[in-house]
Design brief:
Layout: H1 2-21, H2 23-33, H3 41-53, H4 77-116, H5 121-135, H6 144-160, H7 164-181, H8 185-205, H9 213-225, H10 234-249, H11 263-282, H12 289-304, H13 309-323, H14 343-360, H15 371-378, E1 384-388, H16 393-400, E2 404-406, H17 417-427, H18 433-440, E3 444-448, H19 453-461, E4 465-471, E5 474-479
Parallel strand pairs: 1-2, 1-3
Antiparallel strand pairs: 3-5, 4-5
Helix pairs in contact: 2-4, 2-14, 3-4, 3-16, 4-5, 4-6, 4-13, 5-11, 5-13, 6-7, 6-13, 7-9, 8-9, 8-12, 11-13, 12-13, 15-16
Amino acid sequence: MIDHIRSTQERKVNAAGILLALVPAAMLLVLLLRAVWDVDIFWQLKLGELILDHPGPISHEPFSALHLGDPMSSVAWAGQALMALARRVGGWDLLRVVDAVCWLGGFWAVAAACRLRGAAMPAIMLALVLTFIAALPTASIRPQSFACLCFGLLLALQRLGLRPMLTIALGTPLLVAWQNLHPSVSVGVIAMGLASLPGWIAWLGDRSRTLPVATSVLALIGAAAVFATPDGISIVHTSAANAEASIAIGASEWLPLWISGNRLNAVPVLVTILLAARLVMGNRRRIDAGELATAIGLLLMTITAYRFVLFWAVAMVPVIARAGPGPDDGRSIGSGTGSGWGTARVVGPILLVTLFAPLLAPTRFAATLPLAAVERLRKEGVRGTVYGDFPFGGAIIDAGYPAWHVAYDGRYYRYSRKEWQYNGGIENGIVPLVDVVHKWQPAAFVLDAKHNAPLAGELADSRAWRCIWTRDGIVVYVPRRR
């Protein structure tokens, strides 16, 4: 009887272990089933192709009609090149897999470090589920996925607690690579600074305490790595211009969490905060002050600008993993090799999803992307400047360069404040069609008929232009006589 009860309990434990071991694979499947929706990935990929063919960073503007040949920043040049290489080798399906694995890799890396340091597997999987849901709205194919991976690896180094010199030796090339893959290594600088702060405070109170050497040195190295790109010190001006233009245009990811456009995204963040706070308060002795300080600092950044939610979510993984269910000693339920927690039980499903998900669920594109409209325009054989709403600029570049150039695209830093004000005047009907034609001499228009209603309305009434496409709110016009 006792043996039967014990056998039943073991089967339940094994079943629970297997189900929880599937969490990482389920995260990957969710990402791969999503449609491609980010408008900027298209110009990023075309720029990445130019970098591959050059080879090396592109220093002069190739896309914008009124800026051709102007000096151009090399923002995220390495990330763009790697993504372009993935699409060139395996199409959109391979690109989706590479991007998803990198995006999730940040979460997985720090989770693996927590496991190696003895965190309970149920707590780790709970941390992954909560943080994944909180950050999911930001998941899209773009170089920021490399930043997530690098940030997760940096926090994993911190969590592993290796010798300071080894941690610094591994962290230094990681920080330099991060800044060239995506110019957000400053987040790593802030994280390492916050992680070292409790240690410095403790040392000031008791000089016998160990100094936080590794995190402090990595913060300094990260600050230097900000300039370790082809742009050098000018990256500061580019980043500031990008932030200023993004806020002025009203990009929701650059705005506070409480605005109406971000309220829905704020719900999973709030749920994660409340659940994590309850766990932390119930297991205060397990919490690492440096990890908690990092998470709190990034939370404050997320509240003021939603774009930091991805980094905050990754930073919450070790916090929840320490405070979650099960002892932080590696002897939790299911920790044995026969209980469902083995590496193969976690990695195997991930490999299966990686191989078969793209075959069973081919790449889908959001209806808001003007891909079909642009493809119809290609059949017209037009050459020159294609005027499109700035979110459409990427798709126009990817489909038509070098035959086509654009008036605007999603590179906020590319265009001056005056140019963005002029764009606002066009969208509001202050700048008429005749002025747009005079300024750019467009060979075609690709517009969101609702967003750019005044210009679309003038084109509809004009005898000089004819409509060749109207679907899903997108219209395409070409000259009636060419």
